[in-house]
């Protein structure tokens, strides 16, 4: 009784914002579920701890290697007096990553959460709910950004022998670099969702709008980069290196928040505090604008997302609508429909298929960080080193295999089922057949991505058609083992207890585990091929043939592995 | 048609025994009602029968096929309607039914012949082209019922089938259950509505703390207590005597 009373009193002392935020974080981080699992499954605890340890060690190794690279690069830059490039890369990278990934995340937690209705019914203002959601997004992006941005900030601090004040400024600049793009994304998505609410097919509009927004951000970033590179032409870089031109002033014309961040972070005088204050003020202004807009339109947008377009057209039972398919194909089609129609899944899974080809085309055609001269230089390089179609084919297949390691459709295929996994157990379809249906869908996305990559590279770099076709053909069996590895990880340890589909696709350890294991497999194939060609001088045609043979054999082996894992893994999962 | 032999299931590594040595036989052509207080193990039992959970001990046989020996053949004989509306929200009703037809290997002709009358009976024809997310709770339940009947299963397993249904739909489903049994099939369902169990079931099983504490026809359960309602029998068997003293208006 005393405990209950004190808990209530404690909760009453918090503001609605803090209470809601604490509840959301507990729910999203799964702390309550974790506590219950520890209580209930003490025997299986070591397995979970072991998997967690593998993730931590894998991630730690990657971050350690990245930090070592940044440090080596930083020392090299410092010796040439160019150490300011470090924070430039760190801040612009954080801003871009938050803008692209954060927009999808923000859309999903603002509008597509299952708790939208429950939160609407609470006696809390929509502005408070919005503030909680955007804080949640900020914390999520901060967690992702720490291993990427902070090694850069710390290395810069070390090479410039910066004092404690630098690190205080770094924290503030870093938070602004995350919140500015998020606020910008909010200012774009709030009217977009309000507008989509006026339409019947609002979910489709949200999915298409989200895609368009992400592609627009990418193209916009490339355009800014092209402006930057144009500004640095004509010996500007040389002049800057000689101290005659300030690089920061050049950047200012393109991205003012980045300029303010760099001035605030790298300056040592009192003026840097002024820049820092200006940066904070800019963030606050954007935040205030987003809050004001949220007060006006957020609730209407949320309410609209809980409604569904309902087709009242009667069914014509003429028999043609009932086309019989095999269970494998039925599962594949169901996966495709559910993924494309669930905005969170569509934006997190299908995005990858489109984003990389867009980046390639944007880089070489729209006008990204390289210009016509760069393309010519690259072609000359290709002619020198990648002198035959087989080499180009290997290049395209290698790139497809690397991208295949990020196949979220495969690495979350079971977790996405959530409570619906009961149907997998009820169905009179062997577990391995069900898993194969899911694999075919995941592979279809990978193959589509490979095709886009091959075509966009072929068009952008004017590569010979034979090489492009051969590259795509090799990538067809090439991406299968990686997808199977990612799927197997999810089958053996699925995350089925979630309240929000975002948890299944973004806050899922299997994503990282699958990526690491798939990357190890891909590296084991790609690196020896490169060594054989570059060091041993083996003909590229022969390496291509060997790679084809290995990929086909490994694909067959992967299929057998998946069938075994599915037969045993599905039977173990109980919900 | 359905036989459970000494079936047990524990959660939390043996900490909670949800089903404890349950033995039961349900005959062909029978409507069998499964009642019990909240947490008695009804849903767990149904999940064990349908293969969602695996028993720790015991054996489950469906239509002569043991679930352990040939789970695919056993599952083919079952039509299952879960307790919550676990439906694929982003499919249309028709897509869902087609998916179930594909999974259970129902021919195109049989689908056309079976879906139309069932949809008309449950007044769902006008909604089948709509996304399930837009359905009401009752409509989702009706869709799940049609999906479970699509392959004409000899054993129909329903977990709380009346929840969320309007009186007309409840009437239709009761008729459907009776018709299914009259055709020589079996219905096994759990419910909290004792009145439904009393009127509809050929036999009733009462579950408490994972154990079957009583099973039989209503007359057998009354055990000579003339005129006692199922509610009174249920309260007597599952609760303290104090709980059932007096009438509602006292």
Summed up, the helix count of chain A is 25
Shape of chain B: globular
DSSP strand count of chain A: 0
| Biggest interface, CB < 8 A | A-B, 46 and 50 residues
Element string of chain B (H = helix, E = strand):
EEEHEEHEHHHEHEHEEHHH
Strand order of the largest sheet of chain B: 6-7-8-3-9-10
Instruction: Give the helix tally of chain B.
Output: 10
Beta content of chain A:
under 5%
Terminal CA distance of chain A? 33 Å
* Helix-strand sequence of chain A: HHHHHHHHHHHHHHHHHHHHHHHHH
Roughly what percent helix of chain A? over 70%
The Rg value of chain A, from CA coordinates, equals 26 Å
Notes on the structure:
The complex is a heterodimer of chains A (575) and B (250). By secondary structure, chain A is an all-alpha fold. Chain A is built from 25 helices and no strands. Chain A has helices spanning 2-13, 16-29, 31-40, 45-79, 85-111, 116-121, 126-159, 164-196, 202-231, 236-241, 247-252, 256-266, 271-306, 327-341, 343-367, 372-385, 389-404, 408-411, 422-426, 431-461, 465-478, 480-492, 501-505, 509-534, 540-572. In chain A, helix 5 packs antiparallel against helix 7 (126-159) and helix 7 packs antiparallel against helix 8 (164-196). With 250 residues, chain B is α/β, with parallel strands linked by helices. Chain B is built from ten helices and ten strands. Chain B is globular, with a radius of gyration of 19 Å. A six-stranded mixed β-sheet of chain B has the order 6-7-8-3-9-10, with helices on both faces. Helices cover 38% and strands 24% of the residues of chain B. In chain B, strand 9 and strand 10 (211-216) form a beta hairpin. In chain B, helix 3 (93-103) packs parallel to helix 5 (137-149). The model of chain B has no long low-confidence stretch (mean pLDDT 85). At the A-B interface, helix 14 and helix 19 of A face helix 2, helix 3 and helix 4 of B.
